[in-house]
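Message: I would value a second opinion on how I read folds in token form. Give me a protein, with the fold worked out from its sequence. Write it directly below this note and I will take it from there.
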Amino acid sequence: MFSGSTQGVRRFSLLLLEEGELYVEDFVASARWPAGVAGNWQRLPHMKGQLRLCTKSLFWEPDDVRVPIVRLPFQFVEGMEGAGERRLLVTTTRVVKMRGNAADTPYVVERAGNGSAPHPQPLQWEFELSYARLEGVMPLAQQMMVASRLPAAEQEEFLQATMAAAEAGARFDLGGLRSPAERLLLELGATLLSQGALVREPGRLLVTDQRLYFQPLHNISGHAAVSSHPLTAVAAVARRRYSLRDLGLEMFFSQPDSSRQQLEVAASPPFWGAASALFAFSSREQREQAVAVLAAQQDLGAALPGGREAATACSAILEADPSWLSRVTAAWQRGLLSNLDYLLFLNLASGRTFNDLSQYPVMPWVLADYASPALDLSSPQTFRDLSLPVGALNPRRLAMLRERFADMAGFSAEPPFLYGSHYSTPGFTMFWLVRAAPAHLLRLQAGRFDSPDRLFCGVGEAWEGVTGSNPGDVKELIPEFYTRHDFLLNSRNLGLGTRQNGQPVGDVQLPPWAASPSHFQAVLRAALEAPFVSANLHHWIDLVFGCKQRGEAALEAHNVFRHTAYEGAVDIDGVADRTERIALETQIAEFGQCPRQLFTHRHPQRLVCPPAEVPPPDAAAAQGGGGAAAGASSQALPLALVATILAATREGAGNSPRLEVPRQLAELDVAVRRQRRQEEDAAARAAAAAAGDDAEQADGPTSAGGSQANAARSGADHMPSHHAAASPASGRLRSLGAWAAERKQAVGDRLAGSVGAVRDALAMPAASGASDDAAVAVSGGSASRLQSLFNRRGPAPAAVSATSPATSAAAANEPAGEWSSNAAAPSTTARSPPKSPAAGGAAGLVSSISGRLASFSLPRGQAPGSPVLGSGGSVQVASCPQQPALSAAATAETAAVGRQPADSSGTVWKFARRAAVGDRSAGSRRSSEQGATSSDEEEHDGPPPPQQHLPPLRSSGSGDGGSGIVRRSGSGRSAAELLEAQRQRMLSHGRGETATLAAASSPAAAAAAERRHRTGWYGAGLRDRLAAVSVLAAGSESINGCALAAVADQQPQQYAYSASHSGWLRVHRLHGGEQVRASSISEQPLTSVALLAAPGGGGSGGGPGGQVHPLVLCGSFDACVHAYSPGSGRCVGSFQAAADAVACVQLVGGGGGGGGGTSGGSSCRLLTASWDGTLRGWELAEGRQPWASTLPQPAWSVQAPSAVWAVAAAPDGGLVLAGTEDGLVAAYDPRQPPSSRPLWSRHLLADNYIGGLELCPSGTAAVVAAADGSLSLLDLRHSGAVVARVVPSGAPLRCCSTDGVLALAGDERGALHVWHVAQQLDGGQGAAPLGSWTAPQPDGLFSSLAPHLSCEGAAVNSLAVMPSVCGGGVDVLTGHENGQLSWLSTVAGRAE
């Protein structure tokens, strides 16, 4: 794709156009370069070049290659007028410069006045046409400018109609024929797809009896207007898909070279400028008409070795003709084709092509060791498990994805999927090829390279990325890894930036075992042909091309992608709505496509096993594998491959393959080994059970649990390390969620030996009828060790039936996760809670251990800190895995509970903080049926002994006794009112303590106490109480905005609203994590979220389950604000709020609740801030909503000096702060007459953006988060003077929030920082907030909060805070760049 062209390098390319932009016409002209724009290094008064008119912009290409090409987007053109016959005057506020010195560097955007003046003078460009007149240019240019400002759907319709009219009037110029004797056979309209299908050139395809011609609609290159190739040198014609539609046709051309000079004799030049060409037709009928005409030509492929017969065979091979497919597979089985050649054949046969980035050939990762100094290709640990897709290589990530898949089945309108991204996408392909084709990456990413730390920097880092926790990184490799090595070198000296560790991005960092890029490629080729890969490659083929690609087999193999990735799943032509169809086509092109399914049954295994040797450092890659790939470029590879296949099938003709698989390959097959391991585990369990029975009969001790553990450990043979944990035990742990698994595994490992000893001790008296005292005596050492352990960690309740030792022993041998089932078992004997782990003897001790291990389990999908339904209808708070397993009742000052009378058999003892779900097990169901415990009768353990490592717990004063039980409110108030009342109680709680102190001391002491004991509505000790609860998956694209709101139901429920870079809005129920709404509301990325509640608590109508959701307002890159109703699940309207992307939306006035709640009311206004520098206020009163108006007008408008990235406003809307892209914070009063000057402005940093702004509730200070990694506190009473400034980590900060006492800020590394701003307002002398358990540093900073493991390293783009519906706590929601939402809460460890 990148090396097949024989034409010279040229500066202007259709790659420079925007997505969806079309080329119209070009004119020779001269230009007067504005003095305010850099680039005219010679200061010439006029410079010659070409003026190129496109549908969305004007391009000026100077003849001097040292001067950059200039793009003038019509979106920012303020005027276009003529002067005289040939002079065109264009005034614009923005200029995009590209390809200066013909280099592929990031585009440079210059604005009028460089953003320094509030109302800069526009830039004026003057063009003098050399030959054309204005009457032939102006009407067309003005039409394009007007069309560029239409809504997206209307704009697309206009442009398509314009281009269709131009194409309909085009005819092939017969003057371009090579010979007047040629006979015309077919002329059709077609589109040539080039540059990886990023460039689409409409034109005319002509077939004569001698040659194939293509004449583009516009001759952009300036070279020959027509491309042609002799039919005798057309090697193959293969049908292809384009955007999942069967409209493509790929032609492969044989090119003359030094070794094939005879081609020039049989085929006269000129030849096509590339080894292949991909065309798209308007209909399948036209495509088939072209195929039929070409196939009927007797001269087709006559110049090839083998003539027309070879050309016919080439086409059949590349189209996966069934007879050829079986022959090629048999040749591979016998070893006549290498693994590399066979994989390349499967790619091409399934429709993959080097001419389309969305269908680029895919190759597997085969190595898993990128850290060792040397490789051992005979060791299975060196290789990746080819029976699993990349997304399933990390068991923790797979567990999370499977949970999301199960949740999606219940609420998502589209079919559920495991992976939102594909293993092969244009972005992933260009991730690998950024050094080889930088212009393509600039085209994909709007003129910018990615962040240096997100580029392809090292092979080992890339492997860690695809096997890490990011659910969106599931990319496989491309053929270049096995066929060439130059793409690993920065031979163009591209400026790719500097990483955060200070290292510049240059050549790709290779593993320690690779001596050079060529040696690295040679080792990969050798690894691909190694015995382990030959034994398992058929599994990977099943996943990508075969029977496990779709259906139930794909689900069992963890291989399910979005339904739009599969052929035939979407009828694009059947979508009537143009906007929806465009969005669907964009999704298909950008999110990847599965190859055409070639096999419906299991693929056979290879039957040969060549030895594997690591090539020496000076080995050439071509020597490692040979075959078609040796020395062939990407586009020439298909024909070289076909030649290899033809030779291999001729060599193996008449030879039937052996049906048996060699023993060595069978032993290396991971599926065979997995089945063997399962059989061994089953046999070990049966043997352990039999040994246990024999031991009981012989009065001897045994441990079935230990035998099972040993069997599981012995089953984990020499598999790669990232699969060694795939045992039945680890499978049960993964089902609990990653965080619970880690905690339970840690405790289980610590107690494994002691638990086994106690169980051994229990088994002996159980069989002989010995007493409990004897059991304790036998295991006294273990019991004492365990008792001391639990005394340190706090007591754990036990569920022990005082019936018989045998019953106790049976309970002790239950798995840890089944403890609640034992607790609820029916019994006629009264149960009573032991006052210490040893109170019930060894049986009580073991049950206590089981209970503690089980306390780390939650019902599936239940998040810690969330209310869950207990027995008898009571509501409890689920425990947080990051806190010690203490009873929720331990927060209350309750007395120890004595033994119950014998008639209280219905009472079930359990951990008070462990969720008791009604259908958890059969035992718990029986308990529920018996009416075991009501919410008022439920009993708990006594308070734990004092512990030095925990903060003191005290009653919250909320009326529930601090038990952690959330009772349903009987009032009729809305959820928003309840939360606002709770927030006021939290504030008044701090004020009440201050008033008490003031009454008992002097005024000076009262003032000091006031400063010392301010807590803010976040509550006391936020840093110590705040802990990660769960992660919500919200797609694979970056989360740019998020919000929290409480929705009224039978009890208040909290919902998370997130806006992603893909244009999708998602709604999640916070407690439980399920997604209840997902909708694509914009074709462009969404930037921000605001929630609007209608007066009286009305929202957007009834939602799922009868809830009333707020109306969601989202800013977008398309310069619009979109209004979405979660209740109806649709977008209710939108309006254009600016001329550039709307970066921020915020509601002011109307008495909106703080902390991330909703705002509403007749006086509420919407504040929008845009990258064009405008700040605007919009009325939201009934009947005046801008999205419901035909001509919306803002109530006020203010112009900031440059693009606005962050905004904050006082509740009454009287003060608005704007943070700009150049580090300026400016204050405005919208109530004053419009003025070009702000109230005040303050430059905080140079040439970088303000990431977040937040006003303190007092209105006298503001917190600013900046891209230089600093947090600043501004005093608004002194024109924004900087009171304090800290740098938490050095990483750029993107968002912040504050309650006036503490401030939260998220950075690009995924960390959350806490800053005591009240201490800074007190001049640095203030104490920590009341109840703080960890004092801040002198600068007010607390230690940062590490993100959830799945969000580690993913930037925090947005932040939302609000009081928890559980009462007495705060919930924090962070939106991350990897498409995930992280929920943190203080409920599980609240101090009040």
Remarks:
- The CA atoms of residues 320 and 349 lie 5 Å apart.
- The radius of gyration is 35 Å.
